[in-house]
Amino acid sequence: MAISTVRRRQLGGELRKLRELMKVSADTVAEATGLSQPKINRIENARSAAKVEDVITLLDFYEVTDEKFRAGLIAITKDGSKRGWWLSYRDVISATAYDLIQLETEASTFKTYEPSFIPGLFQTADYARIVIERLGTRLHGTVEDQVQVRMARQSILTRPNPVQVWAVIHESALLSNATRPDIMVPQLDKLLTLSRYDNINLQVMPVGAAFHPGHAGPLALLGFPHRQDLDVVFLEGLLSSLWVEEPDDVELYRTKFVEITAEAMSRDDSLAFITEQRDKIK
User: Domain limits at 65?
Assistant: First the structure.
């Protein structure tokens, strides 16, 4: 499978910066490394995935000795060649969903604010089904295909080295569908179960909270183990989504997420609230 579009852009941008710092042309690099000039341009402009050996060749030519920097770029190139479970769904996963799934799999941390729904990584199949049915304006494949994909994504929560998740969910998301206890009771039970995992921190944003950055909409901040400047933010909309990749912009979202958590209930109060809501509709 090809490296994700997001990672292609980041890798290509880093390699282009290195070439420009050396003040050499792509033709000069091609002549010195044996890589073709068109291939170098395609990698830099994110038009094709890079091979690990090509990235190593370029890093050597650019005299990159920072091991952490090298490891970060090589790791994202290697991750792009992994054959993940999503191959089975390649005909029903959109380009945006593909990027999200692959980056979730690479991520070491996942911080999210969700004002309207239970986050996808925490959804039961029945809850996911009703959300997808109501909001799936441009579905790839069937609703059941999408439900299966969403359930498969959740494997990152329980893998041997699980992603560390910090989720803030607005109170209104927990109160919706109160007339459907068959859906909401199992969903709230799942939240309570997940909250006991060491790698999951769950908070509830109360309706009466002061103004906070989360009023701008949902967000997901994905962090990676090698280099913080390769972290990204995902902003999902009904018809379109946006990846925030510039390090300064990502840092702004990182700061704003801290502000969001400060306005939310404590972990203990959040779990008590979820339990109370479940018991009301049980």
Answer: 5-80
Phi-psi group of 179: left, alpha or beta (phi > 0 → left; psi -120 to 50 → alpha; rest → beta): alpha
19-45 confidence digits (pLDDT tens): 999 999 999 999 999 999 999 999 988
> Is 85 inside a domain boundary?
no
Token code pair at residue 49: 């995935």
Alpha-carbon gap, residue 88 to 183, rounded angstroms: 28
Residue 45 or residue 186, greater confidence: 186
Strand partners, 165: 110, 200
Number of separate domains in the chain: 2
Mean pLDDT of the chain: 90
Per the listing, tokens 């170098």 go with 40
Cα 202 from chain centroid (whole Å): 17
Neighbouring residues of 234: CB distance < 8 A, sequence distance ≥ 6 = 100, 103, 219, 220, 221, 222, 241, 242, 243, 244
Q: What is the pLDDT of residues 216-233, one digit of tens each?
A: 999 999 998 877 778 999
